[in-house]
From TrEMBL:
GO terms for molecular function: molybdate ion transmembrane transporter activity. It comes from Zizania palustris (Northern wild rice). GO terms for cellular component: plasma membrane. It holds the Pfam family MFS_5. Signal peptide: none annotated. Its main location: membrane. It is a multi-pass membrane protein. It is found in: Cell membrane. This is Major facilitator superfamily protein. InterPro entries: MOT2/MFSD5. PANTHER family: MOLYBDATE-ANION TRANSPORTER, SAM (S-ADENOSYL METHIONINE) TRANSPORTER. The keyword Protein biosynthesis does not apply. The keyword Kinase does not apply.
Length: 452
C-alpha cells in the first residue's frame, strides 16, 4: 500500500512539473517590469501569511489533546474560532474598507501572533481567547489582503487581466507549495527536533512578524470609502444594499458559501472516511498529496485564465466534478464491501476515495484564483472587504453547525449533503453566467443607442 501513496504523489508531481515547464506562448502573458515587482512583493507577503496559517494546522488538535482536553472541549474551541469569524468578520471587514486595508493586514498579523502566544498556556479560557483572535485573523486573511491587492492593482493602472496572474501565482505558491513545506517544517520542529507541539506556533509567529515588517515598509495604504460621513452601520447598509440590488453579487456569495462550506466539511471528514476501521494511514503524506493536487488545480487555472476563457463557464464543470467526487464515499459505501478487520492498510474503497479526494482538491486549486477573479469583477470597491466578509457569515454558521453535529449523522449523509450543495453551486454558477451575459448585452445596447 505504501507504493500506492508514492505512485499517486509522484504522478501528481510529474503532472504539475510538466504543466509548469511546458507552458506555451498562449499560457504566458507579457507584462511590465513594474507589475512583476508588484506581483512578487504581494506573493512573498501572501506566502508568509499563509505559512503562518499552515504551520498551525497539523498540531492544533494534538496540542489541545496534550493539554488534557477531551473531544467535546476541543470541539467547542474550534466552534469558538469559526463563531468569532462569523460575528466579528463583517465588523473588521467594514473597518478595513474605512480605516485602510494595509492597517487591516497588519492587524491580521498582530491578532494571529497573539493567538499563537496563547498556545503556550494550558488554561482553557486563554486558549478560548486565542481561538477568538484566530477567528478574527482568518476573516482578515481572506478579505483584507485580496481587497488591498485589487485596489492597489487598479490604482497603479495595471492591465485588469493581469490580476489573474497574481491570483494564480499566490494560490499556487501560498496554498500549495507553502502548505507542503509548512507541514514538513511543523513535523521537523515538533517531532524530529523534539521541540514539542507548541514549536510550530512559535515558528508561525516568526513568519507573521517578517511578513508584517514587509507590509509596513513596502505597502501603501488604500481604502474602500474613507469618507467621515459613513459610520460602521452605514458601511453595513452599503454592503447589504449592493448584495440585495445586484443579483450577480448575491449569486457569487451563495456560490462561495456553498463551495467553501463543503470544502471545510471535507477537512473534518476525510480522515474517518479513509480509515473507518482505524486503518493505519500516513496522515501527513496524504495531506501533502492533497496540497500537491491543489497546486495542480491552480496550475490549470492559470492556463485557463491566461487564455481568457470565461470563468463563469468552466467553473460550472469544476463544481459538477466536485459534486461527483464528494459523492464517491456514498457510492463506495454501498458497492464496495467494508473490511471488518481493525487496523491494517487502507481498503480498496479507501483507495478509490483517495483518488476522488485528490480530484476534489484539484478543483479547490482551480476554485481559489477563479473566485478571486469573479470577485474582482462583480464586487464594488467601496465596500469590498465588508461584502466579502458578509459572504463568510453563512459559511461560518454552516461549519459551526457541522462541527456541533459531526457525530449525529453517518459520514455518508454528510458527504451526500456536501455533494448536493456543490450541484446547487453549479446551477447557481450557470445562472450567474446568464445574468452576467444579459447585463453585458444590455449595457452594449444602451451605449449603441446613445446619441453622441
Amino acid at each position: 500500500m505504501e507504493v500506492f501513496y508514492y505512485l499517486v504523489f509522484g504522478g501528481l508531481a510529474a503532472v504539475v512539473a510538466g504543466l509548469e515547464l511546458g507552458k506555451s506562448g498562449k499560457d504566458r502573458v507579457t507584462t511590465s517590469q513594474a507589475f512583476n515587482s508588484f506581483k512578487n512583493n504581494y506573493v512573498l507577503v501572501y506566502s508568509l501569511m499563509m505559512s503562518g496559517d499552515w504551520l498551525q494546522g497539523p498540531y492544533v488538535y494534538y496540542l489541545y489533546s496534550q493539554y488534557g482536553f477531551d473531544k467535546g472541549d476541543i470541539g467547542r474551541l474550534f466552534i469558538a474560532g469559526f463563531g468569532s469569524s462569523m460575528l466579528f468578520g463583517t465588523i473588521v471587514g467594514s473597518l478595513a474598507d474605512k480605516q485602510g486595508r494595509k492597517r487591516a493586514c497588519i492587524t491580521y498579523c498582530i491578532s494571529y501572533i497573539l493567538s499563537c502566544i496563547t498556545k503556550h498556556s494550558p488554561e482553557y479560557k486563554i486558549l478560548m481567547v486565542g481561538r477568538v483572535l484566530g477567528g478574527i485573523a482568518t476573516s482578515l486573511l481572506f478579505s483584507a489582503f485580496e481587497s488591498w491587492l485589487v485596489a492597489e492593482h487598479n490604482k497603479r493602472s495595471f492591465d485588469p487581466q493581469w490580476l489573474s496572474i497574481t491570483f494564480s501565482k499566490a494560490i499556487f505558491i501560498g496554498n500549495g507549495l507553502i502548505a507542503i513545506v509548512s507541514g514538513l517544517l511543523a513535523n521537523l520542529l515538533a517531532d524530529n527536533l523534539g521541540f514539542g507541539p507548541v514549536a510550530p506556533f512559535d515558528a508561525a509567529a516568526c513568519f507573521l512578524a517578517i511578513g508584517m515588517a514587509i507590509i509596513m515598509s513596502s505597502w501603501s495604504e488604500n481604502y474602500g470609502d474613507p469618507s467621515d460621513s459613513k459610520d460602521l452601520m452605514s458601511q453595513f447598509k452599503v454592503a447589504a444594499k449592493a448584495i440585495a440590488s445586484d443579483e450577480k453579487i448575491a449569486l457569487l456569495g451563495a456560490i462561495q458559501s456553498l463551495f467553501e462550506g463543503s470544502m471545510y466539511t471535507f477537512v473534518f471528514l476525510w480522515t474517518p472516511a479513509l480509515s473507518p476501521n482505524e486503518e493505519d494511514i500516513p496522515h501527513g503524506f496524504i495531506f501533502a498529496t492533497f496540497m500537491l493536487s491543489s497546486m495542480l488545480g491552480s496550475s490549470i487555472a492559470s492556463r485557463l485564465l491566461a487564455r481568457k476563457l470565461k470563468v463563469e463557464g468552466y467553473m460550472q464543470i469544476v463544481f459538477t466534478i466536485s459534486a461527483f467526487t464528494l459523492f464517491l464515499p456514498v457510492v463506495t459505501n454501498f458497492l464496495v464491501p467494508a473490511s471488518s478487520v481493525k487496523g491494517g492498510s487502507m481498503s480498496f474503497g479507501g483507495t478509490l476515495q483517495l483518488l476522488g479526494f485528490c480530484t476534489f482538491e484539484s478543483c479547490v486549486g482551480i476554485f481559489w484564483p477563479s473566485i478571486m477573479k469573479m470577485r474582482s469583477q462583480y464586487i464594488p470597491e467601496e465596500a469590498r472587504s465588508t461584502i466579502m466578509n458578509f459572504f463568510r457569515v453563512p459559511l461560518n454558521l454552516f461549519v459551526c453547525v457541522v462541527l456541533y453535529n459531526v457525530n449525529a449523522f453517518p459520514i455518508t449523509v454528510m458527504f451526500g449533503m456536501c455533494s448536493i450543495f456543490l450541484f446547487i453551486a453549479a446551477i447557481l454558477q450557470r445562472r450567474l453566467m446568464v445574468v452576467s451575459d444579459l447585463h453585458k448585452l444590455s449595457t452594449s445596447m444602451q451605449s449603441f443607442f446613445i446619441v453622441p
